[in-house]
UniProtKB/TrEMBL annotation:
GO terms for biological process: electron transport chain. The keyword Signal applies. Heme c binds at residues 142, 145-146. Pfam families: Cytochrom_C_2. This is Cytochrome c.
């Protein structure tokens, strides 16, 4: 009898340890996606500042480097929004609708990837107007998703 009780305790302790481990892993995942999103934010802010200053021709090399950075970062965050991250103890701006409207969240990602590709394609040789337009489209793709899926 006593043995069973002890085994029960041990099992419960193991289950708790396992769920703590899983929660820890989910927290790591959330932190990783936020780091990537921050880098994306930094690269895009730099482009936006250059566009706003009408300085694309003079700062072409920076625009090209930032567009390439965006292109490599843009596909990365989304696999880190798995359902296991819903219960994270990390402070997150992710809205629960991410998991109830998975198709909408996916569509917003697809939009971003297309916009980032289009910006990258004109970054080196496009006219300043073209670059500004494509950068604007990227901004709309960021904002469109944030409006729906990120807390203010
Ligand atoms: C498909 C939806 C989606 C798209 C597209 C998107 N984001 Fe976000 N973004 C989010 C969500 C959701 C969060 C909140 C993540 C969290 O807190 O766990 C976020 C958070 C951020 C953050 C805050 C990161 C932090 O924790 O400090 C920045 C900066 C950011 N996004 C920039 C951008 C930029 C710039 C773009 C466009 C180049 C972009 N995002 C496109 C969904 C998106």
């Amino acid at each position: 009898m006593r043995g069973w009780v002890m085994a029960g305790f041990a099992g419960a302790a193991l289950a708790m340890a396992a769920s703590a481990l899983a929660a820890g892993a989910a927290d790591e995942t959330v932190l990783a996606r936020q780091t990537t999103l921050k880098s994306m934010g930094k690269a895009f802010k730099e482009i936006r500042t250059i566009v706003a200053a009408n300085d694309i021709a003079a700062q072409r090399a920076t625009v090209v480097a930032d567009a390439a950075k965006l292109k490599s970062l843009a596909p990365q965050p989304w696999s880190k929004f798995g359902p296991e991250t819903r219960g994270t103890s990390v402070k997150t701006e992710a809205k629960p609708v991410i998991w109830t409207d998975a198709a909408g969240f996916k569509a917003a990602q697809t939009k971003l990837l297309a916009a980032v590709d289009a910006l990258d394609a004109v970054a080196a040789k496009g006219s300043p107007d073209e670059v500004a337009t494509k950068a604007g489209d990227v901004g709309k793709a960021c904002g469109g998703c944030h409006k729906q899926f990120r807390k203010e």
